[in-house]
Amino acid sequence: MIKKEMIAMLLAGGQGSRLGVLTSKVAKPAVAFGGKYRIIDFPLSNCINSGVDTVGVLTQYQPLRLNTHIGIGIPWDLDRNIGGVTVLPPYEKSSNSEWYTGTANAIYQNLDYMETYNPEYVLILSGDHIYKMDYEVMLDFHKKNGAEVTIAVMPVPMEEASRFGIMITDENRRIVDFEEKPVQPRSNLASMGIYIFNWKTLKEALLALVDQPALDFGKHIIPFCHENGAPLYAYEFNGYWKDVGTLNSYWEANMELIDIVPEFNLYEEYWKIYTKSDALPPQYISADSVVERSIIGEGTEIYGKVYNSVIGRGIVIGKDTVVRDSIIMNDTVIGDNCELNKAIIAENVVIGNAVKLGVGDSVPNIFAPHIYSHDIVTIGEKSVIPDNVSVGKNTVIFGETSENDYDNAYLASGKTLIKAGE
Question: Which residue from 7, 12, 98, 253 could staple onto 127, CB 3.0 to 4.6 Å apart?
């Protein structure tokens, strides 16, 4: 019988609908981040840096790119004979076939996988946060307190506490109560969605609550453990942590990487962030170009000017093009004489010559103001933008567009252009 002290279950099935067209063809954890990474690289790197060498990655929505990226786990040293990384999609069972309906339901459907390792502890992680955390330190805290469940929490400003699940603890950090998005918060310790369970406790809770629709950790499992007297503890984390679930927080987290002294350092020797890298030639920056305060990925050619931006791999930026405050993902080509302001451009996009993005007045997006905001221009993957068009702020374009799709070569601020079939 294989015996692992702690295994990790990484929930990576989310659609990430608040990222709009960025996730219409790809799961949120597989979205490119920081020039050369994908979001899932962060929790996976945390696992191997923390000595957790058995990770089940639960996928569901648009998993292809995620599966290709993870492969057999070589970049994270997770290609193990015993343990390593295993991608766990929902599958058809003899009695019924069902999609994962909630975070805990996804874990329940993989009881057999966990049982194989007969772990003492199970670490539950989310695949869409940017942070560095030593799970071993959290496990030591869990053991020292004799906890059955430990929830990682982060102090947030009191005025923001009503946006989170909030833990109320005693002086020893034992959780005495919790509230989901309270109107009048009694504490500022927000749950980070990172849990360590004693395997026995987790299994009992999952089996007892199996009939709950959309079985969820925050709504069902944690309250069940609490009501049954299991000791719950809050482990306080004070490092950098960012939920990149909205276009603006995704944009901000990328921009924070290019601060002169970044709060979140991607290049620390002792806590490396690993990723799958293709063999690409080095960056080419022409004699006439200018690059300031930017990250430039491998295989990228720059003939224009780039300021304050995060540029991925295999990108071409044409002559006399100016890029500011933007994120450009892998394998995108931008023509000559363009002007890009605060744009997020997904992978494999083609932008013609003399295109202007992010010009004009700020007008709320008509179609989805809660998604497309903060004056960001969002371009979905494999989109094509013809020569000589101008695009306003809070706009979104997705698909192969032609001159006929633009009114006098202009897409006004707040407008959406999504081609049928995308």
Answer: 12
